[in-house]
C-alpha cells in the first residue's frame, strides 16, 4: 500500500498519535448516528422514567408501603443504569477514551448495580409469596421497617461482588493489549462462582416462589369467581383486597419475567466465553439488552399501575409543588 494511504489507517485508530493504539470499529456513518440516537433515547428514558418512580413513591404518603419500598429500591438501581449507559454510548466504535481507572470503576459500578437488581428481585418475589400464600400474616411478617432493613442489606451485600474485580481494581488496565481498550479478566473459578451465586441460585429462588404464587393465585381467582354472587359488603371488600394483591403479583411477575429474559444472555455469555463478554465492543449488544431492562420496568408500571399514571400527571403538571400534595389521593 502506498504512503498516501496512511491518513486512512490513522482514522482507524482510537488514538492516531499513538502507535500502540487500539483499532476503532469502522461502521457506516448512518449506522453510527442511528446507534448514538437509540442509546441516547434509551438513556434519557431510563433516567427520566425511573426518576418519576422514585419521586412518586418517595413523595406520596399513600405509596409508603412495603411492596412499594422494594419497587423504589429497584428504581434507584435502574436509575443508576442510565448513567452507565452514558459510558456505553462512547463504546460504539470500540474505543475507551477516559482511562484505565474509569474502566475499572465502570465495571465495579456495573457489578454492584447488577447484584443489587438481583437482590431486589428476590425480595420482591418473597414479598409477593407472603402476600398471596400467607395473607393473614402478611402485615405482621412484612413491615415497612423490616423491608427497609432488607433493602439496606441488599445494597451493602452487593459491594461484596467487587471481590471478583480485586486485581482489576488494584492494577487498572493490566490486561489491556493496546491503548483505548477496556478489558478485565476474571478466572474460571470466579466466573463459575459468580454465575451460581448471582444467577443460578437467585433465579431458582425467584422461579420457585413465583410458581407457588401462580398456583395459589389461580386457586384464589377461581374461588372468588365461584363466590362472587354470594358475598356480603364486608366480603366484597375482602375480594377487592385479594384482587389488588393478585394484580400486584401479576405486575411484579411480568417485571421478574422481563428481568430474567434480559439478564440470561449476559450471564450465559459471561460463563461460556469470557473474551466475548469482557471485550466491550463485541459484547455491546448483550450488555445493552441487559441494561434495557432498567428502561422497561417503569414502562411496565405505567401500563399496569393506575397510581403510577396518576402520579406522572401530578408531577408533570407541577401540582406536586403545591402545599400538601403529598397527601393527594393517588390510589
TrEMBL record:
It is found in: Cell membrane. Keywords: Cell membrane, G-protein coupled receptor, Membrane, Receptor, Transducer, Transmembrane, Transmembrane helix. GO terms for cellular component: plasma membrane. PROSITE patterns: G_PROTEIN_RECEP_F1_1, G_PROTEIN_RECEP_F1_2. It comes from the Eukaryota. Gene3D superfamilies: Rhodopsin 7-helix transmembrane proteins. It is a multi-pass membrane protein. InterPro entries: GPCR_Rhodpsn (IPR000276), GPCR_Rhodpsn_7TM (IPR017452), TAAR (IPR050569). GO terms for molecular function: trace-amine receptor activity. The keyword Membrane applies. Its main location: membrane. SMART domains: 7TM_GPCR_Srsx. CDD domains: 7tmA_TAARs. It holds the Pfam family 7tm_1. Residues 49-301 form the G-protein coupled receptors family 1 profile domain. The chain crosses the membrane at residues 33-57, 69-92, 104-126, 147-165, 195-218, 252-272, 284-304. Belongs to the G-protein coupled receptor 1 family. This is G-protein coupled receptors family 1 profile domain-containing protein. It comes from Mastacembelus armatus (zig-zag eel). The lineage of its organism: Eukaryota, Metazoa, Chordata, Craniata, Vertebrata.
Amino acid at each position: 500500500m502506498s504512503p498516501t494511504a496512511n491518513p486512512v489507517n490513522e482514522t482507524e485508530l482510537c488514538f492516531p498519535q499513538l502507535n500502540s493504539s487500539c483499532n476503532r470499529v469502522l461502521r457506516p456513518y448512518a449506522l453510527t448516528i442511528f446507534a448514538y440516537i437509540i442509546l441516547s433515547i434509551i438513556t434519557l428514558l431510563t433516567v427520566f422514567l425511573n426518576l418519576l418512580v422514585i419521586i412518586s413513591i418517595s413523595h406520596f404518603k399513600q405509596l409508603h408501603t412495603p411492596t412499594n419500598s422494594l419497587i423504589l429500591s429497584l428504581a434507584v438501581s435502574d436509575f443508576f443504569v442510565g448513567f452507565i449507559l452514558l459510558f456505553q454510548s462512547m463504546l460504539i466504535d470500540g474505543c475507551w477514551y477516559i482511562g484505565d481507572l474509569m474502566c475499572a470503576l465502570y465495571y465495579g459500578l456495573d457489578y454492584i448495580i447488577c447484584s443489587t437488581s438481583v437482590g431486589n428481585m428476590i425480595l420482591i418475589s418473597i414479598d409477593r409469596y407472603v402476600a398471596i400464600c400467607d395473607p393473614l400474616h402478611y402485615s405482621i411478617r412484612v413491615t415497612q421497617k423490616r423491608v427497609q432493613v432488607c433493602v439496606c442489606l441488599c445494597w451493602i451485600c452487593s459491594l461484596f461482588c467487587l471481590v471478583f474485580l480485586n486485581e482489576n481494581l488494584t492494577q487498572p488496565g493490566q490486561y489491556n493489549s493496546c491503548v483505548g481498550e477496556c478489558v478485565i479478566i476474571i478466572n474460571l473459578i470466579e466466573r463459575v462462582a459468580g454465575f451460581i451465586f448471582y444467577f443460578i441460585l437467585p433465579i431458582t429462588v425467584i422461579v420457585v416462589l413465583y410458581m407457588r404464587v401462580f398456583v395459589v393465585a389461580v386457586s384464589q381467582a377461581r374461588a372468588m369467581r365461584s363466590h362472587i354472587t354470594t358475598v356480603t359488603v364486608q366480603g366484597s371488600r375482602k375480594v377487592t383486597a385479594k384482587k389488588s394483591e393478585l394484580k400486584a403479583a401479576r405486575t411484579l411477575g411480568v417485571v421478574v419475567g422481563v428481568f430474567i429474559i434480559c439478564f440470561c444472555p449476559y450471564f450465559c455469555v459471561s460463563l461460556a466465553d469470557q473474551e466475548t463478554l469482557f471485550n466491550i465492543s463485541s459484547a455491546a449488544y448483550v450488555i445493552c439488552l441487559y441494561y434495557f431492562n432498567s428502561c422497561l420496568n417503569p414502562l411496565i408500571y405505567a401500563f399496569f399501575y393506575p397510581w403510577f399514571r396518576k402520579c406522572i400527571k401530578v408531577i408533570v403538571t407541577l401540582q406536586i409543588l403545591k402545599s400538601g400534595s403529598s397527601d393527594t389521593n393517588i390510589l
